[in-house]
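Let's do one together. I've listed all components of the complex below, 225 residues spread over two lines.
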Amino acid sequence: TQLLEQSPQFLSIQEGENLTVYCNSSSVFSSLQWYRQEPGEGPVLLVTVVTGGEVKKLKRLTFQFGDARKDSSLHITAAQPGDTGLYLCAGAKGRGADGLTFGKGTHLIIQP
Amino acid sequence: GAVVSQHPSRVICKSGTSVKIECRSLDFQATTMFWYRQFPKQSLMLMATSNEGSKATYEQGVEKDKFLINHASLTLSTLTVTSAHPEDSSFYICSARSRLEQFFGPGTRLTVL
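Okay, and this is what the predicted structure of the assembly comes out as:
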């Protein structure tokens, strides 16, 4: 059973456009993390959101955690070719003692 | 962020042999480490939770006798794939917990011929 539904799975847009990636679940998570993974490498942590309704910004990336802590979104403004990659959301049920449940990932391609 | 290393980064072995993969937390101590597996074009799937000084906890469907985990120190966990078969070929990634976050190693590409 896939507990985290991530969408879209694939997205190809032009440089300069905005985009949003969604991560939804029927389960409540104590925290949710967003990672970026390059081919042949491990995921690199972008951000952790913990509080319902929380919004975090990382340059052109904006992360939101839903009020009920069941969903999250990643918004990229003015996408650049360097943003190309696989973006993964992952939820934690407990206070860190549990492994993460990953979404299927979003393959993002930004065309120059 | 915290640094996690894995060794080897790539291994090719014959069917029936065993392969050991090491996961180290370089600048912090981790009482809990995790092992994930990732098949091509797919996301990460949790295999097991490695606890320092105690037995690992395996996810449903993961054979504990095939994937041996040892977490002998606060900075090292090992995963041994015993009697490897071609279907075990995959990208194995470990992570170590630091506070609420997990930091991932660079992964180990296992190819079983």
